[in-house]
């Protein structure tokens, strides 16, 4: 758990330790300050974005935000937004989005992201690719020197048909980076994880940097059977990081 020591009140010498979830909430609330009445909003997915969606719902209920239209990036966010009474639409009806708020799994120094460990990368990339502004919200554990550098998964959404063949091609593509490709599973029986779009996810693990990200992106997308990957290159316009020293806002 991340720890951020803050005074419990301006005059108090007593400090409280904030959890990683508290940090996520702080970043999320900061991002919601960018929201104005009348906006079409991309609603992200994950434990950080969930706080932003909850806050937007709260402000709508309090009458502080009016005429908001939300475009959810997953069925789970759709359900959360419906439960909060946030009016919803989709990209077909609203192809231009004013602002999206979403979390990330990794953020590099150039504000490139890895997303999709929560499984929603395809819809997230469609929605966030249609945004005028994309505010990414993370706690500082998500900062990396290069994408793939956390040693955690780089997700690729693939069609189910001959997924092993596609996983093998992905692994071969990054042989020099020591890539291992694994099918994502879920549940006690280890069934394949199925995305909102009915596809599978192959998670790529790297031992070394994958080099030029654009080259890597094109090479992945060039494999038949791949639907989308979790590298979000040059898409975030602002990244809000909550960490031990407080909030940092990085913008392009
Ligand atoms: C879901 C995502 C999430 O934004 C990402 O996994 C970060 O999640 P969390 O906020 O729970 O750490 O890309 O597909």
From TrEMBL:
Primary gene name: 11409058
Keyword annotations: Isomerase
Gene3D superfamilies: 3.30.70.260, 3.40.50.1360
HAMAP family named among the record's database cross-references: Rib_5P_isom_A
Biological process, per Gene Ontology: pentose-phosphate shunt, non-oxidative branch
Organism for this UniProt entry: Medicago truncatula (Barrel medic)
EC number: 5.3.1.6
InterPro entries membership: NagB/RpiA_transferase-like, Ribose-5P_isomerase, Ribose5P_isomerase_typA_subgr, Ribose5P_isomerase_type_A
Protein name, UniProt field: ribose-5-phosphate isomerase
Membership in a protein family: Belongs to the ribose 5-phosphate isomerase family.
Pathway assigned to this chain's UniProt record: Carbohydrate degradation; pentose phosphate pathway; D-ribose 5-phosphate from D-ribulose 5-phosphate (non-oxidative stage): step 1/1
UniProt KW Isomerase keyword: yes
Recorded GO MF terms: ribose-5-phosphate isomerase activity
Reactions performed catalytically: aldehydo-D-ribose 5-phosphate = D-ribulose 5-phosphate
């Amino acid at each position: 758990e991340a720890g951020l020591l803050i005074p419990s009140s301006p005059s108090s010498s007593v400090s409280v330790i904030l959890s990683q979830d508290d940090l996520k909430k702080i970043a999320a609330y900061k991002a919601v300050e960018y929201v104005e009445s009348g906006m079409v909003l991309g609603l992200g997915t994950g434990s950080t974005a969930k706080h932003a969606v909850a806050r937007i719902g709260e402000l709508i209920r309090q009458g502080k935000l009016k005429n908001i239209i939300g475009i959810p990036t997953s069925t789970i966010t759709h359900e959360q937004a419906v439960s909060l009474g946030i009016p919803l639409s989709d990209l077909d009806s609203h192809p231009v989005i004013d602002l999206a708020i979403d979390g990330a799994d990794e953020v590099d120094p150039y504000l490139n992201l890895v997303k999709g460990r929560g499984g929603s990368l395809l819809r997230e990339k469609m929605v966030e690719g249609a945004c005028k502004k994309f505010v990414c919200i993370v706690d500082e554990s998500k900062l990396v020197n290069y994408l793939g550098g956390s040693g955690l998964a780089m997700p690729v959404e693939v069609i189910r048909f001959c997924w092993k063949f596609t996983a093998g091609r992905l692994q071969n593509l990054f042989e020099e980076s020591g890539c291992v490709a694994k099918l994502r599973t879920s549940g006690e029986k280890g069934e394949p994880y199925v995305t909102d779009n009915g596809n599978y996810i192959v998670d790529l693990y790297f031992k070394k940097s994958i080099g030029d990200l654009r080259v890597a992106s094109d090479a992945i997308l060039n494999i038949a059977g791949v639907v989308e990957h979790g590298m979000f290159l040059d898409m975030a316009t602002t990244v809000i990081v909550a960490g031990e020293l407080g909030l940092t806002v990085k913008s392009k």
